[in-house]
Design brief:
heterodimer; A: six-stranded mixed sheet; 7 helices; B: about 425 residues; mainly beta; 2 helices; globular
């Protein structure tokens, strides 16, 4: 599924089939394929501006018209296609300690067990891969999370969760293809990057809909208190008949399994063992030797485990023997010997719900409720704060939304602004036609169109037009 | 972002025998011992880059040093000029950060006991996050305007002009905004009244204006008003001195120029009479010198020029005269031809000349080989805002760059649409 993040749609001349599947014009017969990096740059005076950087999603020749269409997407699509099985490292951008086995639910960062949104974003980007420190820009976060973990979600969903917890956070892909996170601090800033009046832009408009009204909020904070001891409950299990053979050398001398929790747990999970028919005690659950298909018994593998998320734990099994090792009996063995169990102690759980209403607004526009669930806030005060912000005076009455400012590179200044403005920048708009006077908006999206002034091989100039999608900045 | 060269030049400088301060941009004919006279008041945030000094001739028996000056202290730039050595001297390694209200100048420090040093060019590269630079007509020697006089001055080049406004006007071929108009009055013996100093656009008063009381000296600046200049406008400063006796002497005049690029203009107090070929600096003072190398500066930033403007006040040469923009010692196609017996303004805007950073540049007046003289008050090159050049690049071979053959598909693009945004409604 293509996400509604950034995209690039180019129509190119293709009178000789150079963009066709079998073309060798750009290299070998397999060169013209999706997946290649594509970028749009603008050079102005001594500066180079990256206006888009993404990955080609499709190349479609149109032989009849001697053209081809190249469609590309930005990193949002990659996030959408990357599943977070489990998060096992902290981010390099803002530091932090690695998860340890000391807590089943891994705190994001630091010895206090609390973290902030910037760090989880770094962790997600680390997990996705390819976003080095120069390919990310994470502003100082504002929200503090009581705990945080993700399992079996897309990176996109995980990033959206962080945006939501920041409430006024913004994650986007900039022109250089970097993943950028703006905290609420950034968005709440008032510095305007550009001041425009009607003489500067082609058009400016918005719509006013009753759908913009929020006069009721129901916010639930899912709190989990983590007990510090206890090892008697089954936290998770999995059938192990698909666990692969462990060889004696890397890279397959160790395997990592992600085991969903049956219930949330705390403490160090007990070392996984073969179930041996009876429950519970250390002695009965001692690690056992395994044997291969021929029935030969070897020394046990080293098995370690720690929790990595609210819904799963990570188990690593390392072959310390001199031969290949199977972690369990082959398929067809007794059920009691094909299941891997992890023991621990389940944490307390409480859902704290806050409801905020504005009856005056409801009398005028009916009840228009926003319902939010926040998994990683610990206290009810966080929910109260979010609810209060959702039902602030800004949202009690219909307001202009979906504002669009159309601007063309008709002179030096507009050209410079088109080249340099980025999402999150503030624009101060004066439009007498709409009785708008020095109103500050935030850029939340930019759409560009480029039409070369001529189609010759010498074309270097482009007519560039941008539509800035704006939202009220405060 | 914009990087522009700001320069002070003199086609025929006079020698200095002691440490002297120079304006930049402006006129480097003769320095002054009073730094305040030539300082430029900065009204934006800039990086002051490459520093260039052209020593026209050097008979001094001691070493000299050229420096940038910021707020009456030595800046980061310095060039060492050995005794009896002329030529070009550069500091391309050091920079200074300039912020609003900083005061900028240049200094040539002199040692030794005899001989003089002639400076024909001083330049810096000025870089701002916007297309912001400085337009200046400043000089180390004060221009004295008598009481009760109306004079119109050049916006760039020297600190002087004419009582005939047309002779001082230069045509702007860009859209720009001028602000922070400033004049530094070094002497003022006007006996009464208030002198006005104002911007002039197409022969009418602009928005910027200053009032200078009789006897008042020092810095006067309009920090409130600005002028938006349209393509094709003709610009001057105007000073209307009050009183019946005395004179007002001024050195530095300048404005912040935003939204486009400045002129590289050389001008002369009245007009300069040329009896033969002559080379001129790109900024500062035109004169009858005929020394190619001595009038050149090295740009150290790429510049696109798309206008050459010449004002001729008299033309008695028995042939056509051609004025050229020069590049590394060669005349270029950016030129204007002044037909025999014609006067007025001569301009070309149809030719574009791209200078690269390493180019050394000046103007050349080709007298045409005929007898007689021609009088020229202004030569100006309009610095164009560099066009946007776009590129659409594909890393076909996946090596992490776009530098391989055919990885630019720019020339094949018929249209492009793209979007950047969040993956969510705001």
């Amino acid at each position: 599924m293509v996400t509604p993040g950034g995209y690039l749609d180019i129509e190119v001349v293709d009178d000789t089939g150079i963009f066709s599947y079998d073309s060798t014009f750009f290299g070998t017969s397999t060169t013209v394929r999706p997946g290649k990096t594509i970028a749009i740059i603008f050079q102005h005076e001594t500066s180079t501006f990256y206006m888009f950087r993404g990955i080609i999603e499709s190349i479609t020749p149109h032989p009849a018209s001697r053209t081809a269409t190249i469609y590309a997407v930005d990193a949002f699509e990659r996030f959408n296609r990357t599943t977070i099985i489990g998060l096992t490292s902290t981010g390099s951008a803002t530091g932090g300690s690695n998860p340890t086995q000391s807590h089943l639910i891994v705190p994001t960062i630091g010895s206090t067990g609390s973290g902030s949104t910037g760090n989880p974003i770094a962790v997600i980007l680390d997990t996705v891969g390819g976003f080095t420190s120069t390919q990310r820009s994470i502003s100082e976060p504002g929200a503090t999370l009581g705990w945080w973990a993700e399992y079996n979600v897309t990176a996109l969903d995980a990033l959206h969760t962080m945006e939501e917890h920041e409430l006024r956070g913004r994650i986007f892909i900039d022109g250089q293809g970097r993943c950028v996170f703006h905290s609420s601090t950034h968005r709440n800033g008032t510095t305007s990057a550009y001041v425009v009046t009607s003489a500067d832009f082609q058009d400016f408009g918005y719509n006013v809909s009753i759908n913009s009204v929020v006069n009721s909020a129901r916010v639930t904070v899912h709190s989990r208190n983590i007990p510090l001891s206890g090892t008697t409950e089954i936290l998770g299990s999995m059938l192990v008949d698909t666990i692969p053979q462990l060889s004696t050398a890397a890279p397959t001398n160790a395997i990592t399994l992600i085991i969903p929790f049956t219930q949330l747990g705390s403490n160090a999970p007990q070392v996984p063992r073969h179930r041996d028919g009876s429950s519970g005690t250390t002695g009965e659950w001692a690690t056992r030797s395994t044997r291969d298909l021929t029935g030969t018994t070897y020394d046990p593998a080293t098995i370690t485990a720690f929790a990595l998320a609210a819904a799963a734990m990570q188990v690593t099994i390392t072959n310390t023997a001199t031969s290949a090792v199977f972690i369990t009996y082959p398929p067809g063995s007794a059920d009691t010997k094909t299941t891997l169990y992890v023991y621990g102690n389940a944490p307390a759980y409480a859902a704290l719900t806050t409801t905020t209403d504005d009856t005056a607004s409801q009398a005028s526009f009916g009840i228009r409720r926003a319902t939010k669930d926040f998994n990683f806030f610990t206290t009810s005060s966080d929910g109260e704060r979010v609810a209060a912000e959702l039902v602030s005076s800004t949202f009690l009455n219909p307001r202009p939304t979906g504002a669009k400012l159309y601007i063309a590179a008709t002179d030096t200044e507009t050209r410079r602004q088109i080249l340099t403005r980025e999402l999150g920048d503030k624009i101060t708009v004066t439009s007498p036609e709409l009785n708008v006077t020095s109103k500050v908006y935030e850029i939340v999206g930019i759409e560009y169109s480029l039409t070369p002034e001529d189609g010759s091989d010498t074309v270097t100039y482009g007519f560039l037009q941008a539509t800035w999608n704006l939202d009220t900045a405060s | 972002m914009g990087s522009f060269v700001i320069a002070a030049g003199a086609a025929s400088p006079s020698g200095i025998t002691a440490t002297r301060y120079f304006p930049c941009p402006g006129h480097s004919h003769l320095g002054t011992a009073t730094e305040a006279d030539v300082q430029t008041l900065i009204r934006d945030t800039y990086t002051l880059g490459a520093f260039f000094v052209r020593v026209y001739s050097n008979g001094r028996n001691g070493d000299s040093t050229g420096r940038s000056r910021v707020n009456t202290a030595n800046g980061a730039h310095s060039v060492s000029i050995p005794a009896s050595t002329s030529g070009a001297f550069e500091d391309t390694a050091n920079t200074n950060s300039l912020v609003t209200t900083d005061l900028l100048a240049a200094v040539i420090e002199i040692t030794g006991s005899s001989g003089s040093v002639l400076i024909s060019g001083i330049a810096f590269v000025l870089t701002a996050s916007t297309n912001s630079t400085i337009l200046a007509g400043s000089g180390a020697t004060a221009n004295n305007v008598s009481a009760g006089q109306t004079s119109d001055f050049y916006i760039a080049g020297v600190n002087s002009g004419s009582t005939t406004e047309a002779n001082s006007q230069v045509t702007i071929r860009n859209t720009l905004t001028l602000a922070f108009m400033r004049i530094y009055v070094s002497t003022n013996t006007i006996n009464t009244g208030t002198t006005t100093y104002k911007s002039r656009i197409d022969g009418a008063d602009g928005s910027q204006s200053l009032s200078i009381g009789f006897g008042a000296t020092g810095s006067f600046e309009d920090t409130t008003n600005s002028d938006v200049i349209a393509n094709g406008s003709k610009l001057t400063y105007r000073i209307v001195t009050s009183g019946a006796s005395g004179a007002l002497g001024y050195n530095a005049t300048h404005m912040r120029c935003v939204g486009s690029a400045p002129l590289m203009a050389a001008s002369q107090e009245t007009t300069e009479v040329f009896l033969g070929d002559a080379y001129q600096p790109i900024h500062g003072n035109i004169d009858d010198g005929n020394f190619d190398t001595n009038t050149r500066i090295t740009l150290r930033t790429a510049v696109r020029v798309n206008q050459l403007f010449v004002r001729v006040t008299a033309h008695g040469v028995t042939a056509g005269v051609t004025v050229y923009a020069r590049q590394n010692g060669a005349s270029t196609a950016l030129s204007v031809v002044i037909a025999q017996s014609t006067t007025g303004t001569f301009e070309t805007t149809s030719t574009t000349l791209d200078y690269v950073a390493a180019d050394s540049v000046n103007y050349f007046i080709d007298h045409g080989g005929g007898g007689g003289s021609i009088s020229i008050s202004i030569i100006a090159a309009g610095v164009a805002v560099q066009p946007v050049v776009y590129g659409i690049l594909v890393d076909w071979n996946g090596d992490g760059d776009f530098a391989d053959d055919n990885e630019s598909i720019t020339t094949r693009v018929l249209s492009a649409r793209w979007r950047r945004g969040r993956d969510a409604e705001s």
